[in-house]
Amino acid sequence: MSEMAKTLAFVAAAALALMAAFVVAPRENTFDVESLVGQRLNEFDIDAPKRLKIVKFNPETASTNEFEVAEENGLWTIPSKQGYPADAAKQMAEAATCLIDREVLRVAASSASQHADLGVVDPTSSNLDSQDEGVGIRVTMSDNNNDNLTDMIVGKPVKDAEGQYYVRRTNQDVVYVVTLDPEKLSTNFQDWIEDDLLKINSFDIRKVAIKDYSAEMMITLAGIQMDWDRRAEMTLTYDADTSEWQAESLQEFDKDGKKYIDFTIADDEELNQEALKDLADGLDDLLLVDVERKPAGLSADLKAGDDFMKDNAAATSLMARGFAPVAIGPNKQSDILSSEGEVTASLQDGVEYVLRFGNLQMDTETGETKPVETEEGAAPSGDNIHRYLFVMARFNENMIEKPELEELPALPEDSKEDADTESGEDASAAEEPASDESASDDSEAEESDEASTDTETPPTDEATPEDESNAEDSEDADENADAESDETDSEETSKDEELADIIEKRKSIEEENQRRLDEYQAKIKEGKERVAELNERFGDWYYVISNDVYQKIHLGLDKLVKKKEAEGETGEAASAADEGVPGLPNLPLGGAPAPQ
C-alpha cells in the first residue's frame, strides 16, 4: 500500500470515529438525571396491589428473610407462613400508601459504585456474605395478574433529613431521595395477623382445669416411650358474686402409690388469688408469635388417626415440638400428649378451650432480621424464648345456666273436672233444654187440667182466711227463690272471673317459660356453632407463644397455694389506711385487699 493510500485509510478511520462520537455524545448529553427531580415514582391505585414481597438480608447468617402476603379468591394469606390467614387489608393499604406517588426530591447517585454507601445493594444478590454492608430492603408489589407495580430497594435514611430515604429501582443504578415511612413495610408476622388467639374476655371465664405434668418422649424400636412426671391436677371455679376463685378439686400425684390423691389446703394456707387473676389475664392476652402447619393426619380435635400413628416421619416431626400420639384410656383411643401439661378454660357460654403446651422454640424467625436484644449478661427471657402450643375447642353444655321455670298456678278443682268432662258436659247441656221443655209441657198440662177443673167448680163469692194465708206464703216463697237465684248467679260469675284470671296468668307464665327455654336452646346452638368455627380456625395449625405467657397460664400447686399473711401483717402494696386504726395496730380496717 502506498503512503497516499495509508493516509486516506487513517483519515477515513478518523472520520468514522468522529461520526460515532457525534452520534453518541448527544444521546449521552440528553440523558440528564437531574431532570428526574420532581417526577413521581410508583403511580398506581391504592387497591391495585394484591401481592407484597419484602426481602431483607441477615448479615449474621448471610441469608435472606422473605416475607410475603397475597390475596387469593378474596382472602389474604401469608405464603411465607404456609398460607396462614392474614388480617392484611389495612396493613396492605398502609404499605401501598408508603410507596405510591413518591416524589423524587433529588438524585443522590447514578453509579452502582455508590450503592453500598447509600444502603441500596440488592439483598437477593448471589455474591453477598456476612461481611457485606449497605444491603437494602427489596420491596415488590404486583397486581392480580402478577404484573409488577413496583420493584424497588429501600436504603439508608438521609442524614439530617427526617423521613427521607435513598431508594432505587431494582433494574436501575440511579439512586433517588424520597420521603417514605419504612415502618409501614413491616415483616413482623404479628402485624399482619389477628394475633389475639383465643379472643376471649377474662371476665367470661368460669372454670379452669390444670393438668400439671412433664413428659420426655422418644422413639424406640418398641415404639414411642415416655418418661411421664405427673405432679397435680387442679380444678378452680370463679365466683362472679365475690370476684374470687374457689377450689373445686385439688389432687397431687402420689408417686409411691402411682395415683392421684386429694390435696387439702392447710389452715395457714389459701388460694393465690393474684396468680389466678394473672392466669385469666394471660388467657385473655394470649398473643401469637409464630405459627407452623401441623402434620397431616391430625383431626381438628387433635385426635391422631390410624394412618398418622403409622407415619413415623409425621410422629417424629410432632415429637420434636413436644407432642406425641399415644393410646390413652381403657379403650386405648389415640390422642395427643403434650410435653408440658395442659390447661382447659371453660367460659360461661359453654365454650371450652383446651391448651396443650409443647417444647421450647428458641429464636423463632418472624421475618425480622434484627434479633431480640437483651442486656449484657442477662439470661434469656420469655420475650425471646417461645413455646409450641396446640389449641382446640369443645362445648360443655353444663356451663350454661339452665333456666328457672315458674310453676303454673293450680286450676280450681271443679274447673279441672269441667276440663276433663268438657265434651260430656256439652252433650248434657244440649239435652237439658229438651228435658226442661218436656217438664214444662207436663206442668202446663197439669195446670191446664186443674184450671179446667176449677172452671167446673162454682165460684164462691168471697175468699176464706185459709186461702188468703196460702197466697201470702206463695208470695214469700217466690221472693226467697228469686233471692237465692240472684246469689247463685253472683257466685257463679265470681268463680268464672277467678278462673279467667288464673287461665290468663297460666298463659302468661307458659309464654315466659317458653321464652326462657328458647333462649337456653339458642345459647346451646350458638355455643356449638362457635366451637365448630374455632376448630376450623385452629385445626391446621399449632402455634408459638411467649414463654412468659406460658408461665402465667400453667400453674403448679406451689404457685396456686400460698401461705396466709400473719395476723397484723400487710402486703407490700397495702396502704397506710389498711394497716389498722392508729393506736390499735392489730385491728385492721378491711382485711386484705380484694384481688383486682
From TrEMBL:
Q: Which InterPro entries match?
A: DUF4340
Q: Where is the signal peptide?
A: 1-25
Positions of region (Disordered): 362-381, 403-514, 565-596
Q: Which residues form the DUF4340 domain?
A: 76-298
Transmembrane residue ranges: none
Database matches in Pfam families: DUF4340
Renumbered to this chain, the Basic and acidic residues biased-composition regions fall at 492-514
Where composition is biased (Acidic residues), the residues are 415-453, 463-491
Q: Does the keyword Signal apply?
A: yes
Q: Which UniProt keywords apply?
A: Signal
Q: Where is the composition biased (Low complexity)?
A: 571-596
User: This protein is called what?
Assistant: DUF4340 domain-containing protein
Query: What is the species of this protein?
Result: Bythopirellula goksoeyrii
